[in-house]
Design brief:
Elements lengths: L8 H19 L1 H33 L3 H51 L9 H12 L1 H31 L6 H41 L1 H10 L2 H53 L5 H30 L1 H21 L12 E9 L9 E9 L3 E6 L5 H8 L7 E6 L2 E2 L5 H5 L2 E4 L10 H6 L9 H10 L3 H6 L19 H12 L7 E5 L7 H21 L3 E5 L11 E6 L2 E6 L1 H7 L2 H16 L1
Parallel strand pairs: 3-8, 3-9, 6-7, 7-8
Antiparallel strand pairs: 1-2, 1-4, 4-5, 9-10
Helix pairs in contact: 1-2, 1-3, 1-5, 2-3, 2-5, 2-9, 3-5, 3-10, 4-6, 4-10, 5-9, 6-7, 6-8, 6-9, 8-9, 14-16, 18-19
The structure holds adenosine-5'-triphosphate.
Length: about 600
């Protein structure tokens, strides 16, 4: 099969600029029009000042004081407009670009990444590097089209200026090609800077992760107690220095290129001015010509610098635009590869099945799941047990469609989950994980996020809170479910167990899930609280079973809590080593029975 040749970046840029311009229009129409207007008028402002100034001087020399006065007023008006444009253009463009970046581009990036079925791609270094660059530079993407328009307006200004100078003396036309030298030199430097950004992205991510670990409340506390914070901080410093070394070298080389380019242009320009001065001294030009030349000479410097800066920024934005386009291509490729649109069934009668499922995490050697086959009947409560790292979480993540099996099939009512629309399947799943999210919104919202359609429904939220046994938490908050959570936002901080119950309540928001997963969501709770919650969720599972045939999967280390499950799956090093009910497995006297006995003895000894 021949692979399609990817479209070069430069051919995709015009479409991207047009897209950003329409986004600007949608995000902030008034300012977008103002920015376009200011750019158009700024092209004619400087030549207008120069021409009216020449007319003023020549009229004065000819003794036409009335004309001279009128031209002087023209100079004042044109000068005032030029100054205003110089101040306003940057402000307006920055505001438009910033709004477009935050309100338009940022949500698009997040939506695109989230639209890819599964999360396996978020474990890939090449994807993470690009996401890191794009997240830091969405403003530059919003600004990219304005830099292009700014460059175009500066180039136009430059052309008008040089044409006027050419009329004074044709030799000055040679400045046109020479004005391109600084642009070219700057571009060369930017290529080096761009390469250095991608090269240093991995170390930058590493230092950021280490910083968050050391400075974070959770990980940071642990690091301080264990004394690992000094070492982690040293590693962070090393990673930062490695990134900075690469960046600094590239920027220094880029600066040398820019300086050399400017030197060539400025030398040529000085020669041009000398020619005009000689011409005026010989009487072949007017005093007005000399004034016009000096005026344009001053503004030409600014115009060329503006052109270089805007063009350099356009080129510089490629270090963000290129990874952005790469990410979009990646997302489109992933979506095309999936292309599954089948809707999930309304209810289950047969249930879910794993058929020789294997899975290895990207970048690792050992399979996390190895040839798992099991039937999870509709309406049943399945317990998954096993030691640390045996593959329990990976198994439920495959059931939830967060990862795709490398081999084998996950079936829903006999149909391959891979053929089903990921969005459709996820909308029929509920899950509470050990690493639950702490969403710092109001308590009611943190629960309601479990079912966005009903986030504002107080009855639905109250019921979910009741099911997670979290009523006392809500009642204890100063403003009940309307209390803002999180200290950073001036709200109330919940304890670990309270956050966990909030996560459980969130998972209870959906009324008719086909798959309900509880992956050790009660690890922060004591054994009696955990048992009480599981009892409650077992009852809920039985009620769901009668309606939609929901399969409830519970992952736990505490064997006693899951003894009431219909089926227990015992995992060991990625393999399913035993299957049966609690009674059957105890009777067999195998791995489950041994681990169960050990835990029971430990519990009895502790009481
Ligand atoms: N994102 C990941 N990338 C690479 N390897 C991973 C990842 N997540 C888990 N693993 C590995 O896959 C194996 C199974 O992990 P998994 O989290 O499924 O086990 P578990 O039984 O749920 O463990 P625990 O009881 O500690 O939660 C482990 O060897 C683990 O190190």
């Amino acid at each position: 099969m021949t692979r399609p040749i990817p479209t070069p970046v430069w051919r995709r840029l015009p479409a991207l600029w047009w897209e950003v311009l329409t986004l600007s229009w949608r995000c902030t129409p008034g300012l977008t029009v103002l920015a376009l207007l200011v750019l158009a008028l700024s092209v004619v402002a400087v030549p207008a000042v120069a021409l009216t100034l020449r007319a003023t001087v020549d009229a004065t020399a000819a003794g036409a004081s009335g004309v001279a006065l009128a031209c002087a007023v023209g100079v004042a008006v044109a000068h005032a407009l030029t100054s205003t444009f110089q101040t306003v253009t940057g402000e307006v463009i920055t505001t438009v670009a910033d709004r477009t970046g935050r309100m338009g581009v940022h949500p698009r990036v997040h939506r695109a990444i989230a639209s890819v079925p599964g999360i396996a791609h978020l474990e890939r270094g090449d994807v993470l590097d690009r996401v890191d660059i794009v997240r830091r530079g969405t403003g530059q993407i919003g600004r990219s089209v304005w830099n292009v328009l700014l460059s175009a307006s500066h180039v136009l200004k430059l052309l008008v200026t040089v044409v006027l100078l050419g009329a004074v003396h044709p030799l000055l036309l040679s400045l046109i090609p020479l004005a391109a030298v600084p642009l070219w030199a700057h571009r060369r430097g930017q290529v080096l800077v761009r390469r250095a950004e991608v090269e240093g992205a991995e170390n930058h991510r590493l230092q950021q992760d280490l910083f968050e670990t050391v400075a974070g409340v959770t990980g940071g506390g642990e690091a301080r107690v264990s004394g690992a914070d000094t070492r982690l901080d040293r590693l962070r410093g090393e990673a930062w220095r490695a990134t900075e070394r690469v960046r600094f070298r590239a920027r220094a080389r880029a600066a040398v290129w820019t300086f050399a380019g400017w030197l060539v242009f400025v030398s040529a320009f000085a020669g041009g001015i000398a020619v005009v001065i000689v011409q005026a001294a010989q009487g072949t030009g007017t005093v007005g010509d000399l004034v016009l030349t000096v005026m344009l000479a001053v503004s030409l410097g600014q115009t060329v610098r503006g052109t270089v800066t805007a063009t350099a920024e356009t080129a510089g934005a490629r270090r963000v635009v290129e990874p952005y386009l790469w990410l979009r291509g990646h997302v489109a490729g992933e979506l095309a590869r999936e292309g599954c649109t089948e809707e999930p069934p309304r209810s289950l009668t047969e249930g879910l099945a794993l058929d020789r499922v294997s899975f290895t995490y990207p970048g690792t050697e050992r399979p996390a799941l190895d040839g798992i086959s099991a039937h999870l009947p509709a309406g049943s409560v399945i317990a998954v047990v096993g030691e640390y790292g045996s593959g329990k979480t990976t198994l439920v993540k495959l059931l939830l469609g967060l990862y795709r099996p490398d081999a084998g099939t996950v079936r829903v009512e006999g149909r391959d989950l891979a053929d089903m629309s990921t969005e459709g399947w996820r909308s029929r799943c509920s899950a509470a994980f050990q690493d639950f999210g702490r969403f710092e919104v109001t308590f009611g919202e943190t629960v309601g996020l479990g079912d966005l359609d009903r986030i504002g429904d107080p009855d639905a939220v109250a019921r979910a809170v009741r099911e997670a046994d979290a009523e006392e938490i809500a009642a204890g908050l100063p403003e009940g479910v309307h209390t803002q959570l999180g200290r950073r936002l001036g709200g109330v901080e919940l304890s670990e167990g309270q956050w966990q119950r909030a996560a459980l309540a969130r998972a209870s928001m959906r009324r008719d899930p086909l798959l309900f997963v509880l992956d050790e969501p009660t690890a922060s709770l004591d054994a009696p609280s955990e048992e009480a919650i599981f009892r409650r969720y077992m009852e809920r599972a039985r009620a769901h079973a009668r309606g939609t045939g929901t399969v409830t999967v519970v992952v736990s280390h505490r064997f006693s809590t899951v003894a009431g499950a219909d089926l227990v799956l015992v995992m060991e090093r990625g393999r399913l080593v035993e299957t049966g009910t609690h009674a059957e497995l105890v009777a067999v006297g195998g791995r489950y029975a041994r681990l169960y006995g050990l835990q029971e003895r430990a519990y009895t000894a502790g009481t």
